[in-house]
Amino acid sequence: xxxxxxxxxxxxxxxxxxxxxxxxxxxxxxxxxxxxxxxxxxxxxxxxxxxxxxxxxxxxxxxxxxxxxxxxxxxxxxxxxxxxxxxxxxxxxxxxxxxxxxxxxxxxxxxxxxxxxxxxxxxxxxxxxxxxxxxxxxxxxxxxxxxxx
Length: 149
What we know:
By secondary structure, the protein is α+β, with helices and mostly antiparallel strands. It has helices spanning 6-15, 37-54, 71-86, 105-118, and strands at 19-24, 31-35, 60-65, 90-96, 123-132, 135-142. It has 4 helices and 6 strands; from the N terminus they run αββαβαβαββ. Strands 3-4-6-5 form a 4-stranded mixed beta sheet, covered by helices on one side. A two-stranded antiparallel ribbon has the order 1-2. Strand 3 (60-65), helix 3 and strand 4 form a beta-alpha-beta unit. The longest helix is centred in the first third of the chain and has 18 residues, at 37-54.
């Protein structure tokens, strides 16, 4: 309809038994449409619902190890981390030191490196190995996400 005065636009909307809805208020001049406002809101809610359904929220899952974790337990926890990564979640791998284990930090670092190597085809390192307090940890992010059935 082009550029129309506000009074004229309101009159045209009233004649059509519809509403005058401001679409882009910051534009010069502001953009308005003559539409059914209830229908407009309904369609907008539908669009938002579909967008929300399609987005994926990543969750941070934690796997806790000790410097003297045995191979079977290590493999068991690696399989769990594998499943988490396939689901699209991030994995925080932590090595927790108790008492005198703190003197052997290299055992924990070696364990973390082995864990990262085990999962290198499914993940990439987001945060490299860090030591904070009595824990050493690294965060792995998934590279490929499986589609859910």
